[in-house]
Amino acid sequence: MPRTPSPVGAGPPRRAVLAGVLGAGGALAGCSDGSGPGDASEAEKAAGARALRRRAVQQSETLLARYDSALAAHAALGERLGPLRTAVARHVQVLDDPRGQRGRSTPQSPPSPSGEASPDADVPEDEGGALAALAEAERRLAESRTRSLVDAPPELARVLASVAAAGAAHAYLLESES
Amino acid sequence: MKELAAAQAALSAEHATVYGYGVVGGRIAGERRKEAREAYDAHRARRDALRRTIRDLGGKPEPAAAAYALPFAVPDGTAAERLAAELEDRLAGVYADLVRASEGARRREAAGALREAAVRSVRWRGTGVPFPGLTELHGSDQAPAPSSSAPSDGPGSSDASGRPDAGSGASGTL
């Protein structure tokens, strides 16, 4: 199985996330209560949670771009990859805007996440290799999320755990026979 | 106490799942039966771990019900696989709640259990959902969909492999 160099899910956890374990449950839902001036600790927790969520969005966007690259290179995989790509697009949406307030549509174009390698160069030429590379990316991201959710406020941790579980299930589907 | 309640809910779901896999194992053959056996063992291990967690939290682990009513009739292998997937989906939900209620190593453990449930669900069903365990994000997907006909397949009618003896007394809803 070819290992791909792209660092989906790699990299050290942000220091900022050290802050948020307790009490920032509203952060995922976008509440700004309790982060007012004079409450540095709450503000730090909220900032940590925001940074964690932002990173989770970027990671899912990078993964989404990998699906798009794989689909561009292997149109025949469309039926197989389509549902998984749709799920990853939903992850981006929900992580980015949990209550759907912005009415943002599914992201269409690959983003340019901070410093992450362009996935385009990484698509293996054979379909099996492309599937294996996506499985590997899903698995690494799921592992990274499972590590980072320990530092998340409760509700964000719940969502990250679910998204990580979905990623592990995707890896299984990408590696299964049919 | 919030974590204790979430851990008890997870334990109850594991009890039901262990029972349910006993039914599943009696309805399928071959490779799938082996998978059901592995899942049965894995859920027993999760159940035992939760009992320890609950004691660590100062609680008293809830016992299993003597028997459970199945959510739909399970006359054959196809229905058994659907039941297995359903059991895993429900577990995903309680473990997602346990992730929210816990911290540190116990949270990581709960996240691992959620991940296993999601993967097993996909193995049984062949497809997944975008947010395992988060029913609020896939509403209608979670409908229990009892089979159209069918008198309920009572627990007494199962020839479950290795399930705990369902003697008498209370029954639960699976």
Could you characterize what this model shows?
The complex is a heterodimer of chains A (178) and B (174). Chain A is mainly α. Chain A has one domain (39-175): Ferritin. Chain A contains four helices and no strands. Chain A has helices at residues 40-73, 78-96, 127-148, 154-175. In chain A, helix 1 (40-73) packs antiparallel against helix 2 (78-96). The longest helix of chain A is centred in the first third of the chain and has 34 residues, at 40-73. The radius of gyration of chain A is 17 Å and the shape is elongated. The model of chain A is unreliable at 1-36 and 106-117 (pLDDT under 50). Chain B has 174 residues and is mainly alpha-helical. Chain B has a single domain (2-133), classed as Ferritin, core subunit, four-helix bundle (Ferritin, Up-down Bundle), CATH 1.20.1260.10. Helix content of chain B is 56%, strand content 3%. Chain B is built from four helices and two strands. Chain B has a two-stranded parallel sheet with strand order 1-2. In chain B, helix 1 packs antiparallel against helix 2, helix 1 (2-25) packs antiparallel against helix 3 and helix 3 packs antiparallel against helix 4 (104-125). The relative contact order of chain B is 0.22. At the A-B interface, helix 2 and helix 4 of A face helix 3 and helix 4 of B.
Quick structural gist:
Chain A is mainly α. Chain A has helices at residues 40-73, 78-96, 127-148, 154-175. Helices cover 54% and strands 0% of the residues of chain A.
Keywords:
heterodimer; A: 178 residues; mainly alpha; Ferritin; 4 helices; 0% strand; disordered N terminus; B: 174 residues; two-stranded parallel ribbon; 3% strand
Overall 3D shape of chain B: globular
Helix content of chain A: 40-55%
Order of helices and strands of chain B: HHEHHE
- The portion of residues assigned to helices of chain B is 55-70%
CATH class of chain A: Mainly Alpha
How many helices of chain A? 4
Ends of chain B: how far apart? 25 Å
Compute the number of strand runs of chain A. Answer: 0
Shape of chain A: elongated
Low-confidence stretches of chain A: 1-36, 106-117
Task: Estimate the mean pLDDT confidence of chain B.
Answer: 85
% residues in beta strands of chain B: under 5%
Oligomeric state of this protein: heterodimer
Q: How would you classify the helix and strand content of chain A by structural class?
A: mainly alpha
Strand order of the largest sheet of chain B: 1-2
Q: Give the radius of gyration of chain A.
A: 17 Å
**Largest sheet report of chain B:** 2 strands, parallel
Number of domains as seen in the coordinates of chain B:
1
H-E string of chain A? HHHH
CATH architecture of chain B: Up-down Bundle
